[in-house]
Write a sequence for this structure.
């Protein structure tokens, strides 16, 4: 006997039933997880938000200095927030965590590791050694002459400054000055020799 329905019609009907069954399973799952009524949905969402807040306070993330601390407001006050305020705060903390991670990544990318600096220094040292080993060109000779002239001028300038700073004072003479001798002679009537030894 020939079948009442063709294979194409039977396949279409089977696919339709599978889709209807999958849709019923999805709706049942959503009603169990999120609630069937509006009030149940809000209550379940608030419970989930409070669980997330407790987990954030239990394991506070490391945030950048420009962000406020998690413990700035006590946990008891956070749990009293409404559903909309709690969800906004949770999303704000998640955004701050992402911004902190991004800023740290940018900071690391700007600073080269020590191995890269050492490679650069070794490369510069090799280049300088290679340049010194090459024969002296007129341009190089002129540059070295200019450097030597600058060094000589610097040495002269600083040597003059040090001489001025360390200028030695002349030792005091043991002989009495002529002015002091005249003063003593005039007021005392005694003859005072200009030598350190007085006349006997």
């Amino acid at each position: 006997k020939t079948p009442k329905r063709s294979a194409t019609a039977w396949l279409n009907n089977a696919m339709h039933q599978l889709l209807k069954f999958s849709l019923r399973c999805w709706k049942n799952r959503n009603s169990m997880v999120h609630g069937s009524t509006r009030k149940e949905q809000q209550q379940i969402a608030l419970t989930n938000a409070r669980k997330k807040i407790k987990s954030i306070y239990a394991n506070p993330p490391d945030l950048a200095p420009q962000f406020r601390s998690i413990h700035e407001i006590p946990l008891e006050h956070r749990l009293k927030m409404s559903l909309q305020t709690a969800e906004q705060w949770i999303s704000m903390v998640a955004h701050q965590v992402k911004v902190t991670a991004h800023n740290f990544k940018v900071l690391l990318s700007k600073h080269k590791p020590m191995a890269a600096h050492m490679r650069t220094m070794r490369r510069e040292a090799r280049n300088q050694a290679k340049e010194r080993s090459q024969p002296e060109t007129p341009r190089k000779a002129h540059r070295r002459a200019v450097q030597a002239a600058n060094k000589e001028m610097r040495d002269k300038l600083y040597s003059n400054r040090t001489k001025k700073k360390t200028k030695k004072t002349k030792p005091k003479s043991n002989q009495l000055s002529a002015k002091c001798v005249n003063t003593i002679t005039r007021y005392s009537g005694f003859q005072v020799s200009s030598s350190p030894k007085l006349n006997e």
Notes: Residues 161 and 186 are 46 Å apart (CA to CA). Helices lie at 7-34, 38-58, 75-79, 83-110, 114-133, 138-165, 178-188.
